[in-house]
User: Fold this.
Amino acid sequence: MLKIFKGEIKNWKEVGGEDKEIIVVSREAGSGTRTAFEELMKVQKDAEKDGKTVKVSALYEKAQVAEGNGAIKQNIASKENAIGYISIGFIDSTLKTSKIDGVDATEANVKAKTYKVMRPFLMLTKGEEKPGTKAFINFIMGDAGQKIVSEKYITIK
Assistant:
């Protein structure tokens, strides 16, 4: 998969599919989802910046860029030979998930940390939480909040 997103593999026949061009679809530069995907899947290359070696995007230069998970979903669902990445809450019957190292993208595999293309959602505060903030975090982490989360995303419990 790495070679597809870097543009080193450009046709599905190279990976056992039909003789069709691969359409790579990606989030826009600066997207947290894109940054996480590139880090997790190592779609990066070394570059020099201010005398130091840093990691930068190595995404295929002909990748189609879409802003937001909804636009990515629409692009992939409407193009037969497209591949991209999306937050799990947007997955439905119009899309097919990909196995990574033979592991399916399921809630159980994400929780077991065997599906490696995943990242946590972090809630941060500056200093001590104010009472309203603390109440919100407690709600989200409680049974009622986790029930809401479970409607589209993976719960923490």
Observations:
- The chain has two domains: 2-111, 123-157.
- The domain at 2-111 is CATH 3.40.190.10 (D-Maltodextrin-Binding Protein; domain 2).
- DSSP finds six helices and five strands in the chain.
